[in-house]
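Reviewer has doubts. Consider these C-alpha cells.
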Amino acid sequence: MEVWQVPVAPMRPFAFAILLAACQAPAPAPLELAVPLDDAGLARKWLATESLPPRAEVVALTDRMAIAATRAGRTPPASELAWLAAQLRERIWRVDRVASDGREAVELYRAAAERATSVSVECDAELQRALLSGELGRSAGDTFRELFTAYERQSADAGERSGCAERLKGLIDALGAYRPTGQAWVELQNQARRDVEARRANAQASPVLPLSAGASAAVPVPTVPLPVGLSDVVVLPDENTIKSKSVELREVKPYSYTGGGRVVLGLSGPARYEVGVLPPDVAAQRGYRVFIDVAGATLRRSLPDLVLEGLVGAVRVGKREHGARVVIDLTAQAHHRVFYLPDPFRIVIDLSTRDTPTVDQPKSGRRTVARVTLDPGHGGWDAGATGPTGLREKDVALDVAHRAAPALASELGIETMLTRDTDVFVPLEERTARANAFHSDMFVSIHCNATEDGHAEGVEIYMLDPTRQMDAAAVRAVSRENHNAKERARAVDPKLLDAQVASITVGLDVADATNRSRSFARLLQTSAVASLSSYGKVTDHGVKTAAFFVLLGAEMPAALFETSFISNPSDEGRLGTADFRQKLADAVVNAIRAYRDGLGSMR
C-alpha cells in the first residue's frame, strides 16, 4: 500500500541520533514458547549474524511469522513472533531502504505491543514503533505524536504500567519543541483518548489467553455491548434488479488499516444478502465478527482464508445450504456499513472505529478540518484520458496532488494523505476505504475531463446528490471515471445507474455529509475559476451531481474535481505547464481553507 503523509515538522539531523543513543530499547529476552517454533529460531539466528540472506527470503519469513502471530491471539508466542519479525524487517530496511519494509516493521512493532503479556515487552515495542515511525517520516513531530499516544495508553492504567509511562514521558519532554499547536494539539489529545478507549474495548473482547487450549476454553466470554450508531447501516438492492436465484462469488478483496477497513465481495450479478454480528468467542480465540450471508451464491473455486493486520484481522469464506457466508474477524469493536455497487455488482462492507461520521460539525462558523485525503485519479496501467499530444490524466492528477499536499500541511497545518503517491493503480473501492480509515475530514478526487469531439473546455465539480439527476455531461463523465480501461467496453444504462446510486446514497443516511459536500463543492468551483482567471475567461460548468463510485461510501464531505478538459488542445496545453497545475493546487488549498473557516452555504 502506497500512501503519503506530509510531515508536520522537519527533523533536525541530530535529533534521532540523540534519541536512539539515549533510548534504544534492548531486545526482550526470548520467551518460553509452548510449542517449538522453527521460524522463531531461524529469525533469532539471522538477527545474530552480520549479514542476512536475500531480501526475498527475509520477507517471506517475516510474513509467515506475522500470520502465525495473528492466529496465536494475545499470547507470549504471538508477541515474540511479531517482535522478531519487526526486528528483521527493520534491519533489512536499514540495509536496502525499501520504504515498505520500514512501514511493515512499524506495524509489526504495533502488533508486538498489542499482543504482549508483559508490560516491559509492550513498552519496548511501543518505543521502537514510535522511534521508527518518526525516522521513516524524517519528522520529530511524527515521533512526538506516536510517543504521546503510547504514553496516554500506558498512563491510563495505574500500577505496573507506571514505569513505562514515566519512561515515555521523559522522551516526550525531550521532544517538547516538536509538540503540535492549536487545533492539531487538540486533535492529537482527542485521538489519543479515542485510542485508549478502543484498546480497552479490544482488551475486553480479546483477553489474554493461556497457552493451554484446554485452559482457554474455561475463560468466560465477556458481555461487552455491541456499538450502535449512525454508521451501523445495511443497504439492500431493489428486488426488481435481482434476475437470477444463483450467482457466483468470484472474489473477496479486503483492505485493512488501524482505524478502519473495507471488504468487497465481487459477484456475477445482483443478489440478496443478510448481515449479522457475532460476539467474541474466547474458547475459539475469536473477537467480534461481522458475517454476510449471500443467498444463492456458489464458489467457482475455493477461496482461501485471508489474514491481515489492522482492524480486519481475517476474512473467511464458507459454503452454506442456500448460498455462501463470508465472516470478517475484527481486532476491535467497530461500526459497519454495508451497501452495494451496481456495475459490476459488488457488496461493500465498511468498518470503522470512529463512533460516527462527521455529523457533529457546526453548521456555521469554523469547521474542524484536521485531515484531508487527496485522490489522484487513475494510475499505473490505467492512464485515464489522454490529450491530443499524449498528455495523460494520471500524470496531471498526481502532480496537482503533490503540489496541494505540502501547502495544506505548511499553510493550514492539515495532515494529508494521498490515495496513491506514485504511478500505481489503486482500485476505486480502495481509495474511499483509505480515506475512511484515515478518518479524513475531507476527500477530494482529482481528475481531467474529456469529450470525444475535443471542443469542450473549462472546469466543473461533481458530488453525490440523490435529489438531483445527472445531465448528459455527467453521464459521460461517469462512464469514463467509474470503470478502468479494461471495463469501459461495457454498456451502462445511465438512468438505472443514477437511480441505484441515489437509492444507495439515501440508504446510507448521509444527508448531512451531502449538504457539506455541496458547500465544499461550490467553494472549490469558485476557487478554481478565480485561481485560473489569469489565463483569461474560464468556462464555469458549475457544480453537478453524478454517480461516481469513488465518492460513494465516503464518511466525510467529498467532491470530484474535473480540473480541465485534457481532450481540448488549449486546455491540454495549459495542463502540461507547471504554472497551471500550481494554480489548480492553489484552488484546492484555498477551497479547503474557506470551508474550514466557515464559508459557504449549507443549503
